Amino acid sequence: MKWGGAAFLDLQRMPSRGSMVFQPLQISNYQYAILGSDYSFTQVYYWDTEKAKFVKFQELNIQAPRSFTHVSIDKRNFLFASSFKGTTLIYKHVIVDLSA
Fold it and tell me: Which residues form a coiled coil (predicted)?
């Protein structure tokens, strides 16, 4: 949603059936939105500046996710994903330059 001066306007919709957590997250210059669900894979979206919206980026297999946290250690970035039914998972944020 975005503010239209007098009311909020619908900007984008994301499928969220069964979702228990929706977490915006910034890692370096990258903006993400993570949608965690008990019934399907966790969806990671990134902000596409050209399209001016969040675009589906990756699926993560996390059992009953409840929260996502960015942790930066020694110039490396990690995503911690806590689970209600399983173990906490830690993902490393990696950028691959495919422009060459």
Answer: none
Q: What is the pLDDT of residues 23-34, one digit of tens each?
A: 999 998 999 999
Characterize the bridge pairing of strands 53-60 and 42-48. Answer: antiparallel
**53-60 and 65-73 strand pairing:** unpaired
Whole-number Å distance between alpha carbons of 16 and 49? 23
Residue whose token pair is 């009311």: 7
Decide: pTM greater than 0.70: yes
Distance CA 99, CA 77 (A): 22
Q: Count how many Cα atoms sit within 13 Å of the Cα of residue 79 in the half-sphere of its side chain.
A: 24
